[in-house]
Specification:
Layout lengths: L3 E7 L2 E2 L20 E8 L6 H7 L2 E16 L11 H9 L1 E15 L7 E7 L1 E3 L2 E5 L10 E7 L6 E3 L6 E4 L5 E3 L9 H8 L2
Parallel strand pairs: 1-3, 3-8, 6-10
Antiparallel strand pairs: 1-2, 4-5, 4-9, 5-6, 7-8, 9-10, 9-11, 11-12
Length: 197
């Protein structure tokens, strides 16, 4: 059985139009087969580093620590808004996310400073024997050096603005490299200019 869930993310994660498609009702599930769930998420996309910088609440450079935790994140229902039954059921079930710790070395934007740690969540992970993956998601690498464009929240870890456009690998010379599929080039000097506009 391979359910497919559709998630609409405003900013980075999760207010959700959800649909689960399972095997035909006459099929008996194989309890020994690996359980996999594929999340399909819809994120905003951006056309320039100016847009990324403006939309992000925090822009930092730092190292991803090897420790991580996988949790089920349950979102509160929006006040005064009725959700379709399938969407509300998915909201109550929650979404599985992996939370990584990033040790900040440089700050371009936001209320953080070098030496601080920022918790960053990404859709997916393995929990209770089930592997959840995000279509087109690119997990942060252990000990990787990144520049991250984040949206922060008062009651949960930050999220990348976009799983591809929100992260840039940092090389030994402090150059920033976009992921495949991200055509927005930027640099430390450009981000410094945006920070001092």
């Amino acid at each position: 059985m391979r359910p497919h869930l559709l998630v609409r993310a405003a900013g980075a994660l999760l207010m959700a139009a959800a649909a689960a498609a399972c095997s035909a009702a006459t099929e008996q599930p194989d309890t020994h087969a690996p359980q996999n769930v594929l999340y399909r998420a819809d994120y905003p996309s951006y056309t320039s580093d100016d847009q990324l910088f403006e939309r992000a609440s925090v822009v930092v450079q730092g190292r991803v620590e090897s420790a991580k935790k996988v949790v089920r994140l349950v979102q509160a229902a929006p006040r005064g808004q009725a959700l379709p039954a399938a969407v509300d059921a998915e909201r109550r079930e929650g979404m599985v996310v992996t939370v990584r710790t990033v040790t900040v070395s440089r700050v371009f934007k936001g209320d953080v400073k070098p030496g601080d740690v920022v918790q960053v969540k990404q859709l997916g992970g393995t929990l209770d024997g089930v592997t959840y993956t995000e279509e087109h998601g690119v997990p942060l690498l252990d000990n990787g050096q990144y520049t991250l464009f984040l949206e922060t929240y008062p009651d949960q870890p930050a999220s990348l603005l976009n799983p591809v456009q929100g992260q840039y690998l940092v090389d030994a010379g402090n150059g920033l490299h976009p992921l495949p599929g991200n055509e927005i080039a930027t640099s430390v000097n450009q981000l410094d200019r945006l920070a001092h506009k």
